[in-house]
Amino acid sequence: MPLNETLKPECETFLSQFRSLLLGTLNAEEEVDLSYAPFVDHHDSFFILTSQLSSHTANLKQRGGATVFFIEDESACDEIYARRRLRFQCQALVHSRDSDTWKTLAPLFFERFGQIIETLTSLPDFELFQLTPSSGRWVKGFGKAFDFCGRIERDAVHLNPAKSQDSVG
How far apart are CA 119 and CA 101, in angstroms? Predict the structure, then answer.
């Protein structure tokens, strides 16, 4: 079985445990801004509703990209140095309130997060972003790290430090 077909179900099961994501963006001074946002997972993209008052909103609009990160809870891990984690490099796209995407996603946000969504979607400063993965890394333990393209769609490769050192020396 190809590595992509093995990793994808593992990663999707891991993702299903989360209601929010960690979000890394770059500000105008190229400083890293780390925040979080509740998300809806739809059609292999992560969608977030975020306020214009949040620094990451301006960063997403200016830079058009972000890093999305999911990490195993400390209380659930066997080894603190080997927490399972999944990272995606994403392209960001904002969707207007009158778009079909907004009309499709607003009910999904309501279903997932409840009544608060009616309030948030009524506020003029909230915007809908689509974060589409272009590449990523899945780490599930010591010596078990994998890079891939898209959302675990193709070109998965096991990272092996021993092989890297052999090719250097």
Answer: 19
Helix (H) or strand (E) holding 79: none
Looking at the chain, how many residues does it have? Answer: 169
**Which domains, ranges and CATH numbers included, belong to the chain?**
3-168 (2.30.110.10)
- If you ran DSSP here, which 8-state letter would residue 141 be given? S
Instruction: Provide the Cα torsion 28, 52, 130, 152; round to 10°.
Output: 50
pLDDT 10s digits, 90-118: 999 999 999 999 999 999 999 999 999 99
Q: Cα separation of 101 and 148, whole Å?
A: 27
Q: Tens digits of per-residue pLDDT, 22-65?
A: 999 999 999 999 999 999 999 999 999 999 999 999 999 999 99
